[in-house]
Design goal:
single chain; mainly beta; 17-stranded mixed sheet; 5-stranded mixed sheet; 1 helix
């Protein structure tokens, strides 16, 4: 997910109600307010068939009622606000196949900023929420794979797609849907670890600049796989964490993103990995991250973006965020919640999420997951940070399937983010090399 912002640091006329004079937005502002500010929100790849995805877009002026977003120009929504803060939201529903089971993913995504921070933002819509990206099949055989009970697993990555291999007695097959383009193709061998879901890549085949313009077959012989470089991960020496984990994400020079490691500390120590030096290319970026929980429900994640991956050493644990207090804000027309949490020094933004997986009866007879996420800037969160779920039920096209189901517990998280790249790094996207971030988490549960 990539985003481009235009902040007040580089745009003349931003700030405190003194923004660009408005010309009317078609959403209730008649353009006569001289203190109004023009806002532009670009959401790339808005679906052509909005009904197929239950897609609704809306905006908010300050703390006022949410209004339907005005007609867009291309992928850009333009509207005026008279308050010091503004918000934008969109919804999406789509069916996916998770571990062989059809599952409906239902999302509400919000963004909240202060006018003084920025008046323009560009974001990619969730890739599953659009019909405007054409996909073609990339398939093939993995030749000469390792066999046996302890032979590990294989995965194939191209652009933003990653698939696991279906082994047979003689060959391993892969099939994936990818967007046409020129990207790097990686076939990775991994060792599954003791914990379910843990893995560590120990061998790789890297093919650079592979062009896919239509459905194609490409076989890969993994007999020539090159061993990866093992890396160590160390945590502060004082006090063992309640839990810890490490992940390493590789973003190749030609746009392929794939995890190389995902491990919990059972058994210790934590480790990570990187491609062999001979397989690297200028522009490859590693996002190395370590998460540790020294205080219950108060995990802290430290990340480093680098072109030269190395051993990771966390010498001092960052300060935890503190407890989140979440209460009911309303029960009608649907359950809504309000969260408050301590302000975090140096935070460039906060993320609030709440997710629920109701029983099939609460999902219309099949599996579903309902997730609300809000990106909240420091100026929008306030000196005493808080967030309240909005009432969007009056918006044309609103789907009741996006509402949390009564009687089923939902799990939430508030995350404060700091970044060496400053405020323009929030919401986060693939960072420039050298960027260091800290994410401090505070989890909670509620039952509608």
């Amino acid at each position: 997910m990539r985003a481009v912002l235009v902040g007040c640091a580089i745009v003349a006329g931003c700030g405190g109600g003194g923004g660009t004079p408005a010309t009317g937005d078609g959403g209730g502002n008649d353009g006569t307010n001289p203190n109004a500010t023009a806002i532009m929100f670009t959401l790339n790849n808005v679906p052509s068939d909005v009904g197929a995805f239950a897609f609704v877009a809306a905006y908010q002026d300050g703390d006022g009622a949410w209004k339907p977003a005005p007609a867009r120009s291309g992928d850009t929504y333009a509207f005026d606000v008279s308050s010091a803060t503004w918000g934008f939201a969109y919804t999406c529903q789509t069916n996916v196949n998770l571990s062989g089971s059809p599952t409906a993913l239902r999302n509400v995504v919000e963004y909240h900023f202060a006018v003084a921070e920025r008046t323009s933002w560009t974001e990619d819509i969730l890739t599953r929420c659009t019909d405007r990206i054409t996909y073609v099949a990339l398939s093939g055989n993995i030749l000469n794979p390792l066999r046996g009970a302890n032979s590990g697993t294989y995965r194939v990555a191209y652009n933003g797609s990653v698939v696991f291999i279906n082994k047979t007695p003689t060959i391993a097959n892969y099939t994936m849907l990818v967007a046409p383009g020129t990207h790097d193709l990686l076939v990775l061998h991994g060792n599954d670890r003791n914990n379910p879901g843990d893995f560590l890549v120990d061998g790789a085949i890297v093919q650079r600049n592979v062009t896919v313009s239509a459905a194609m077959t490409r076989d890969v012989d993994v007999q020539a796989a090159v061993m990866t470089r093992p890396l160590t991960v160390s945590l502060p020496g004082s006090g063992a964490p309640l839990s810890s984990e490490t992940t390493t994400e590789l973003l190749t020079a030609n746009g392929t993103s794939v995890p190389l490691a995902g491990l919990t500390k059972t058994p210790p120590p934590l480790v990570s990995t990187a491609l062999a030096t001979s397989q690297g290319a200028a522009g490859d970026l590693y996002d190395q991250r370590v998460t540790a929980e020294f205080v219950k429900n108060q995990a802290v994640t430290v990340t480093t973006a680098t072109t030269t991956p190395a051993n990771v050493s966390i010498t001092a644990a960052p300060k935890p965020l503190g407890a989140t207090t979440t209460t009911s804000a309303a029960t009608m027309p649907y359950p809504r919640f309000m969260s408050t949490w301590p302000g975090y020094a140096g935070a460039v933004g906060y993320t609030w999420t709440l997710a629920q997986t109701p029983p099939a009866a609460g999902c219309g007879g099949s599996a579903c997951t309902i997730t609300w996420i809000a990106w909240v800037s420091p100026g929008a969160a306030g000196a005493t940070p808080s967030y309240t779920m909005p009432d969007l039920s009056h918006l044309p096209g609103w789907s009741q399937a996006l509402q949390f189901v009564a009687g089923t517990m939902a799990t939430g998280d508030v995350t404060a983010m700091t970044s060496s790249a400053g405020a323009m790094d929030f919401p986060p996207n693939p960072p420039p090399a050298g960027t260091q971030r800290v994410f401090t988490h505070s989890t909670f549960t509620v039952t509608p």
